[in-house]
Write a structure and sequence with these properties.
- The chain contains eight helices and 18 strands.
- It has 389 residues and is α+β, with helices and mostly antiparallel strands.
- Helix 2 links the parallel strand 4 and strand 5.
- It is globular.
Length: 389
């Protein structure tokens, strides 16, 4: 078995492997002359030179409390049916992590169709990306506040929506910075329509939406992206969405937990249309700790041992120090009673578990009565995901 980076010549075979794995369109798309920018694709080849497995490292960045952290977001993992269960996925993802480590990545996120194989490789479930259906008639029909202007957007407005996204996302944890080439604004709108809310010619809210087909009881208005920076802007956007009630009985959207829009949606009327599980792990624990921002009020120090079978550079005993919105992670020779798995590290880092719950799950071994000192690693808001890949 040979594992190497894919070239442009390998792309047709990689597309076919992905189509079979994920049930895509049988008609192949036009093949680019070169491998797409901003990503590294890895392939596993059998002795005959046939591609039997692939995985893609997306060179993303993620916001963590005001700082952009380099990420290796994993997509397109596919193994030929005859080669499944032979360790190819482990070998592919080991190579991907090593390559990501060499290029400076700190953390990794992936969306999993099944969690068990990825848990065996050090990723763990950190959350769910939920797409909701709301009855359009249940949306409040707010009129825009007098100081706001609502208008249709054009491609020239896309850079302003990018700037607004950064204002909303930067102080949260886990959201993509959307600086990857796949997010670059194009010459055309990526939606059927773009609704803008402005205050003194400054964008304070937007919604990109697709109309869908028909106008009967099954008609759906799909909101692909919607954010606001104030309550008034959120209410104005919701009022526009509510105006579709006569021809689109359902509004489908993926809200960001705790944001301005969510605060004004009748979420008690929502039905879950889709749920995508996302998982997280460190690529390099030192970078993961030191590249991110930390809550300014948090101070402390804790020593712990970590085991990472897939990325052995993370294995060892570490001392974590957090103060003044920053953190340091240094190797330590001190004995410690706290022994953490890499999955446990991921759960703490994303603030989706505590030391006690990790101990109950078998992801933390300790002899001390209270392992709570390790909750220092979980300081900050829980991580979220908003973009599927």
């Amino acid at each position: 078995m040979t594992i190497r980076e894919l070239t442009a010549d390998d792309l047709p075979a990689a597309w076919q492997l992905g189509r079979l794995a994920f049930g895509g369109d049988p008609q192949p798309p036009p093949q680019p002359a070169a491998a797409p920018a901003g990503r590294t694709s890895y392939g596993a080849f059998d002795p005959a030179g046939t591609l039997v497995g692939k995985a893609v490292d997306l060179h993303d960045e993620q916001w963590w409390t005001g700082r952009a952290v380099p990420a290796a977001d994993v997509a397109g993992v596919a193994i030929a049916p005859e080669a499944r269960g032979t360790g190819i996925a482990r070998a592919l993802l080991r190579a991907l992590l090593r390559g990501a480590h060499e290029r400076g990545a700190a953390v990794s996120t992936l969306f999993a169709t099944t969690s068990a194989p990825y848990r065996a490789l050090g990723w763990d479930v950190a959350g769910h990306l939920r797409t909701l259906d709301l009855p359009t008639t249940a949306l409040p029909r707010h009129r825009p506040a007098p100081h706001l202007a609502v208008r249709a957007g054009t491609p020239a407005d896309l850079p302003a929506t990018v700037d607004l996204y950064q204002r909303v996302a930067a102080h949260r944890n886990g959201l993509l910075t959307r600086t990857h080439p796949r997010f670059a604004p194009g010459d055309e709108l990526p939606y059927d329509g773009l609704t803008l809310v402005e205050h003194d010619d400054t964008l304070v809210g937007y919604a990109g939406w697709n109309r869908g087909r028909g106008y009967g009881p099954d008609s759906v208005l799909t909101v692909e992206d919607a954010l606001a920076t104030s309550a008034d802007a959120a209410r104005a956007l919701i009022g526009v969405l509510a105006s579709w009630h006569s021809v689109a009985p359902t509004v489908r959207l993926t809200p960001l937990t705790g944001d301005a829009l969510s605060a004004h949606l009748p979420v008690e009327r929502a039905r879950e249309h889709e749920r995508d599980t996302w998982m997280h792990r460190p690529v390099d624990v030192v970078r993961a700790v030191e590249a991110r921002g930390w809550p300014a009020h948090v101070r402390g120090q804790v020593t712990f041992a970590l085991t990472d079978e897939l990325a052995d550079w993370n294995t060892g005993t570490w001392q974590l120090t957090v103060a003044d919105g920053q953190a340091r992670l240094r190797r330590s020779s001190t004995d410690t009673d706290l022994h953490l798995t890499v999955r446990g590290f991921a759960r703490l880092y994303t603030a989706t578990a505590t030391a006690r719950t990790l101990a109950e799950a078998g992801l933390l071994q300790h002899r001390t009565p209270d392992p709570g000192a390790l909750d220092l690693l979980a300081a900050g808001a829980p991580a979220q995901a908003l973009d599927y890949f």
